[in-house]
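Entry 14. Ran structure prediction on the chain below.
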Amino acid sequence: MKTKILKITALAIIPLLLCHCSSLSRKVEERRDRREKEIIEGYADIKDMVHSGLYEFTATRAYPSGYSSMDISSTNNYLTVRYYDVEAFMPFFGVRHMIDSKMQPGIRIDSKMEDLMIEESDNRHRVLVSFNARGESDKYSIMMDIGPDSNARLTVYSAKTSTISYHGTVSPIEPGMEEEENK
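Output, structure tokens:
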């Protein structure tokens, strides 16, 4: 009698479990498809933004060579690209190889881009932007690796200082914003 009840119970429960598992796998598949669609759309938006030449990077963490990372989200830091003009102020933590009386604290850039290169990685859904720019007393090589969710890693190379990287976000700038800022 007990085995008969167990068999009937098992026959009633197994279809319910199978039905529940199939609905779970369907939900997982829907989530995966939605995430893939978001990545593809985000990647397309990032490519459009970079090719427009109007965007700004704002850092939340600094990664100086040989030191621990630092939270810099409360500091005013930015790298702004307006077509071929670059303006930046980024805090610097690290070693200065050459002391120059003109050197400012941090990384300050207000110049034109040189040697701009944009690489699109369709299989990784990332855009790599690299260029050179002159500061007041130094020349910087800058690489920015941007993901589809607008998260980016900015790395700054210089002959006079150690390499430093920043993690943050990239956002588009509206074409009319520069006129409003100058008022």
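The helical segments are 2-52, 177-182. Will compare against last week's run tomorrow.
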